[in-house]
Amino acid sequence: MSEPPASAAPHLRRLLDLLADDAPAEALGAVSSQARADGVPAGDLAEVERATATALRIRGALRQHRRRELQLTALFDTAGDLAASRDLDEVLNAIVRRARMLLGTDTAYLTLPDEEAGDTYMRVTDGSVSVLFQRLRLELGHGLGGLVAQTASPYATPDYRTDDRFHHTRNINAGVLDEGLVAILGVPLLLGSSRGGTGKVIGVLFAADRAPRVFGPDEVALLCSLAAHAAIAIDTARALDDTRSALDELAGANAELAEANAAVRAHSAAMRRAEESHDRLTDLVLRGRDVKDVAAAVAGLLDSPLTIHDPGGRPLAAVRPDGTDFAVDSMDAGWLAETAEESRTGARAVHRDGRWICAVLAGRELMAGLVLHRRRQLDDSDRRLFERASVVTGLLLLLRRTVAETENRIRGELITDLLTDTDRDPAGLAERGRRLGIDLDRPHLLLVAEGTRERLVPAAMRYLFGGEIHGVSAEHHGNVVLLIDAGDPGPAAGDAARAAAAQLGQLVQAPVTVAATGPARGARELASAYAEAARCLRALRVLGRTGEGACVEELGFLGVVLGNAQDVDGFVSATLGPLLEYDARRGTHLVRTLGAYFGSGGSLIRAKDELHVHVNTVVQRLDRVQVLLGRDWNEPGRALELQLALRLHALAGGREQ
């Protein structure tokens, strides 16, 4: 008697155990090989192989999520260290140590300008082993660091020694070679200057590896956020040193001691207020609060209403000085972008049309605009507080977006599986959706967007991340699919498509075409809805309606031809309704006459022969058709719709034409 075939269940349980133990990828991959060796049947073996692939994706997502958590924890610790540090040497060492920790590089270092010598020098290093490198000095514009200081922009290179974008000198190359550095990322430490000036570079922060490495946009943005905090901390430490020096000098003065002491007390009070405000804002970050909490804190400190708008002008928060919310309309995106660009270029807040605006940046990316609704001027301490709030807001938005992007990627895999192989396990897809916070049994709108792929994928995440729309996005067959909760009641499919096309086009800065279907619920309905939306998108492309949004129903007869034809009766009634009602009420033959007229190629003579009536009778009936349907009934587009409706009416068992 032969032994029963081996079961796949032990191998599936083995996959779960390995995932729970955070086993290496090789151990997971070996499960399918073991199942094959144990003689698992082909059907079950295929299931084990699919489960292994899914387990490998989950392991990768979990490891990436843990890496993000470690980076964010390090960034929070850094903000706490910088808020607590008052000694300049402590501040600089904390900056460099955390930079190396955040990016996981072999070394990190910081250069500061030497005003007397007219160059920059290596102030602090972490992980360096070369004395020659630690004593290195750079001329303005020389090397990667010199270019960062000269342009006030971040630069990165996967291999410094072969990169001809930078001005190589003998002493810089010797120091880099002695340290063994290959990949280098440098970002500027920027501070706003006096009114009418530009941003001032007070140093350059570097992270470097001794092997080739490509620094991604998230790593550049994280190091830029740290550099922004570092610049503020250095400026605060220097200001405190200046205050102490002023106090020492004034101690020996007698004649103007009273007036000088008053000035020092005022300056010290302003500095304490700035420090306390910065500590308060930093504490909001450490406690994981939202941008609305930052808006409330700043509005209270500056005694003015404050709003925060995304790059498209949509409000993210609107708070009065007493902490209460208030309604605010979307801001003109062009005006906001122009004003925020002026703020970014000058590295300071600007005053326009009775409002103070400060750009919220992550690296060089505009993430939002802080708008203080206040006509009167801000003194220097209040302006610096407002500008520091933009740094904290940028950090919070970056953290929120990083988490949202990670979650969206994991949920996007569900959407990809949903559209690729619905019939394999609809119940399993529904259960996966519930675990990820997506109830597939609720009504959803399904949108398919077409545009510049490189920009559209991140733009779709920002579209879902920043507004009131609840959904998830995924890339599928070269387009972007958005699954949006239809709500109760929610927007119509056509309205949702037009709104998405407008917002995504604004984010991408190029036309985006969007087709929508739904509401639909359940795995099979949603997969069918995607197929219909894809056909609708093709129709929009053929019609030359690039950059627009629509649903199948709004395309008229093309919707019937390209869609699932689920509402043929509705289309016939909408197109021929007045004629059908007139015939039913008066016993006439307008529908039949119209069919004969189109069937004879518009010939009155052939139509009257088919109808067995006088030609004048045909003319009179067509005049009545024009009264009921409008003067354009015989125009090419309208005539095509009428002919299609007549054919569908006949196929549905209507009166013979």
Q: How would you characterize this protein structure?
A:
The protein contains 22 helices and 16 strands. By secondary structure, it is of the alpha+beta class. Helix 16 (523-542) links the parallel strand 15 and strand 16 (549-551). Helix 8 (217-251) runs antiparallel to helix 9 and helix 14 (453-466) crosses helix 15. The longest helix is centred in the N-terminal third of the chain and has 43 residues, at 42-84. It is globular.
Give average pLDDT, whole number: 79
Number of helices: 22
Low confidence ranges: 193-197
Shape: globular
Largest sheet: number of strands, sense, barrel closure: 6 strands, antiparallel
Structural class: alpha+beta
Beta strand %: 15-25%
Strand order of the largest sheet: 3-2-1-6-5-4
Q: What radius of gyration results from the CA coordinates?
A: 34 Å
For the secondary structure, the number of strands is 16
